[in-house]
Amino acid sequence: MKQTDRGSFGSKLGVVLATAGSAVGLGNVWRFPYMAGENGGAVFIIIYIACVLVLGLPCMVSEFIIGRHAASNTARAYTKLSNGTAWKWVGYLGVLTGFLITGYYGVVAGWCLQYVYASVAGQLHGSPQFFDQYFAVFSSDPWQPILWLCVFFGITHFVIIHGVRNGIERASKILMPLLFVLLLFIVVASCMLPGASAGIDFLFKPDFSKMTSDVFLGALGQSFYSLSIAMGCICTYASYFSRQTNLSNSAVQIGLIDSMVAILAGLMIFPAAASVGVRPDSGPSLIFITLPNVFEQAFVSMPIVGFFISLMFYALLALAALTSLISLHEVSTAFFQEELKTTRNRAAWIVTVTCWVVGVFCSMSLGQWSFLSIDGKSLFSLFDFVTGQIFLPIGGFLTCLFIGWFVPKQLVKDEYTNWGTLRGRLFRVYLFLVRFVCPVAIAAIFLHQFGVV
User: Which of 51, 186, 187, 257 is 20 to 30 A from 448 (CA-CA)?
Assistant: First the structure.
């Protein structure tokens, strides 16, 4: 069957919003706040921003260069630039990572939709113990999470089959501004609560006595994961860039949007938490267990406002999850479309169905199929661990070595400067960071999580 045209983004705004949508996800709205809460607040944010600049952006530009130069799916892009050497497997690792994340990430995205429904139905009322039990019962239910998983994959599939320009780009131009509007509205409401200033101080008044190696490495890891590095998303989207796209400027703009959303998420959560005396270091349970109780207590005198804030918050979570899931789905869709030489529609169906099956197994492993576990980790937790803590660091590390030491320097410079049409004053800085700083930093993150450094 004849392969359909790959398509391309139609505008600079589309490039930035779509790629930023890939980066902006639950890692910003969920992981960043609890990481900041556990690691000293303002100190963590300062180190995080520095890490985005010296680690995240160079890695992003590297994936941009690979994707745009090859104009292919992630696996084929690395294969083209590797000249048939073993470096091609880095691209296949990226596709595999994105595929596995798509499966279990869809489960978490479905949880967000359940909480939107629960907010509308007025079910999110009760004591902290109630919210703890509510989440435990729902997440282990054999049918409800799978139903929401179907809904979320259905929405994602609808966007993907409409192509790059009419699907991904058009959806990003709607979803990203809507996400910002919801985020800003909740931030304003949260910061106006009595006692909210303590939460604001926690985020913006650094206590440098809390600066430790763990805080530094935590910020380093968060900057890496929140930008969707090594998932195949950035490389795949870059394959749709035009030859006129300024890669370094686009990376900076995306990094700014990504960091802004993360900091605003902190402003949305910590002032409300401070107003009711909840500690900011609630950990991973912050979103689905701690926050429903926070919103209920914070707006107890304004129940209507509390209802809308809770609803908008989980709608915001669902939007953030959707923009990321679209990009993750596209990684595998582009791969199957080009490698099987089939249509986008058929490739999208392959990804939707197979990732749905993966999601079903991951979801069931949290409940009735608890026997699906290895070394005490459920299948869901195992996928999260393997992709997030093993595949992503290894993929990012190898990509830096690939661009820094294997790909011809002139090719890298030509892409960076758009074939000499841009001055590229920071090219030497970029190359130094990719060759030396980024690999060392990523290796430190990887080894630290296993207690080696």
Answer: 257
